[in-house]
């Protein structure tokens, strides 16, 4: 029995060693799972926050562009109203002269003409106010997009530090090779590229701006049938955007006398235009008229050509043709829009990598390599690539967020028809989502860049 003493002690030592190793293994496993979960959550939060900031940038550009469109329509409306007022004032003045034999009526039309002229002159302040706003928004949009790249690039670190108090243990960065930055997505449209906004503005203009014409506003007066002697009154006018830099309106009213004569045994058709009213208004940022003899203006140039010529000399005081100056902001401004308008997908990824050095891991052996089944590796986006030689034993999590365009369902569907709209910076429907849909090649590229910068 003496030779068997101490065997239980040896057994206890072996069992204690096994128990201690088991406890260490459980501790390491739980700590590593916690580390990986924290890294993944931090990557998700940083990626989503960064994508949200980029979506807000795109939406803010869209709101600015929409405001610029509204401002241009307001300027066009002001020019149109001023042109119509000058035409109506001239018409009233001419009627006043024609009825001078009856002073009460003549005085009424004279006063109407005076009031309309004053109203047309006062519209200059209204137009200039909108023009100043256009210029201010143009400067603001420049400033916004000038710093956008740096803002997006620094977003992961900024949001990472807000998300976790111990985020200094993590290296959080945006993977440039797999991300789309504002400078890659949008650009400034200048010169003739502004035609894109011009098309939107003109398609949104109401009929009062584009065409104020009406033929035969009174029944025609037939003195001799068969076209031998008849009179018609035609109203023609409209406002046009001239070479993207000025809004010009022309309004005319004229009596047209159609008659026939016989000369050398041939019947010849004749036509005379008798101007009744005319007026024009021009808002230009260039300080000069670029369309003195061009433009249709709702058919005024072809329907009432003589009256249209007179209109060039009947303008408001603020008009450049009446010793006025340039109106800042009148005309399509410079603006920002997507670079590639042919890309109908409009999905812009932003990939964030979160890495924690192995010597900062809260495990006993500083080991980040945890063998897990495929189901778990899919769930936390931690596949064999991240456990390979590129990781150098560090803990790493990668998350991809996407900025995409999607209108609300009630706008997308009209009746039984799909009214689909592709993404642009004229509609503020840019959204954000997390998406780990990266193939092996993309993930290898991400891991390579992440390893190189660390």
Automatic annotation (TrEMBL):
Putative Flp pilus-assembly TadG-like N-terminal domain segment(s): 6-52
Chain intervals with Low complexity compositional bias: 293-302
Chain residue ranges for the region called Disordered: 285-315
Pfam families: Tad (PF13400)
Top-rank lineage group of the source organism: Bacteria
Chain ranges passing through the membrane: 9-27
Keywords recorded for this protein, A-Z: Membrane, Transmembrane, Transmembrane helix
Protein name per Swiss-Prot or TrEMBL: Putative Flp pilus-assembly TadG-like N-terminal domain-containing protein
């Amino acid at each position: 029995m003496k030779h068997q003493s101490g065997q239980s002690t040896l057994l206890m030592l072996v069992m204690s060693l096994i128990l201690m190793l088991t406890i260490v293994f459980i501790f390491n496993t739980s700590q590593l799972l916690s580390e990986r979960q924290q890294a993944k959550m931090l990557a998700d939060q940083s990626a989503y926050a960064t994508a949200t900031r980029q979506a807000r940038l795109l939406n803010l550009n869209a709101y600015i562009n929409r405001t610029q469109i509204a401002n241009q329509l307001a300027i066009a409306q002001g020019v149109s109203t001023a042109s119509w007022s000058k035409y109506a004032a001239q018409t009233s003045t001419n009627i006043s002269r024609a009825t001078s034999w009856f002073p009460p009526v003549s005085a009424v039309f004279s006063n109407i003409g005076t009031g309309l002229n004053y109203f047309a002159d006062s519209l200059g302040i209204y137009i200039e106010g909108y023009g100043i706003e256009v210029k201010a928004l143009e400067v603001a949009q420049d400033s916004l997009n000038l710093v956008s790249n740096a803002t997006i690039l620094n977003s992961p670190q900024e949001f990472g530090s807000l998300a976790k108090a111990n985020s200094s243990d993590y290296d959080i960065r945006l993977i440039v090779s797999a991300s789309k930055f504002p400078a890659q997505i949008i650009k400034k449209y200048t010169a003739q590229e502004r035609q894109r906004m011009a098309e939107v503005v003109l398609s949104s203009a109401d009929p009062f701006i584009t065409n104020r014409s009406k033929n035969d506003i009174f029944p025609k007066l037939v003195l001799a049938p068969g076209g031998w002697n008849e009179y018609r009154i035609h109203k023609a006018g409209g406002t046009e955007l001239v070479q993207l830099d000025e809004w010009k309106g022309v309004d005319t009213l004229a009596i047209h006398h159609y008659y026939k004569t016989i000369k050398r045994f041939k019947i010849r058709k004749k036509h005379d235009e008798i101007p009744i009213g005319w007026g024009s208004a021009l808002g230009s940022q260039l300080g000069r008229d670029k369309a003195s003899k061009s433009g249709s203006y709702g058919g005024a140039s072809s329907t009432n050509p003589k009256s249209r010529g007179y209109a060039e000399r009947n303008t408001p005081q603020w008009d450049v043709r009446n010793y006025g100056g340039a109106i800042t902001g009148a005309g399509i401004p410079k603006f920002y829009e997507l670079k590639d308008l042919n890309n109908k997908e409009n999905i812009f990824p932003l990939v964030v990598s979160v890495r924690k050095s192995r010597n900062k891991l809260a495990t006993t052996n500083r080991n980040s390599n945890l063998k897990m089944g495929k189901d778990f590796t899919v769930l936390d986006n931690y596949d064999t690539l991240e456990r390979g030689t590129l990781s150098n034993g560090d803990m790493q999590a990668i998350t991809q967020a996407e900025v995409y365009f999607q209108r609300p369902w009630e706008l997308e569907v009209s009746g039984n028809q799909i009214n689909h709209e592709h993404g642009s910076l004229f509609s503020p429907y840019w959204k954000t989502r997390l998406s780990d849909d990266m193939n092996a090649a993309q993930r290898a590229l991400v891991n390579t860049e992440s390893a190189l910068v660390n």
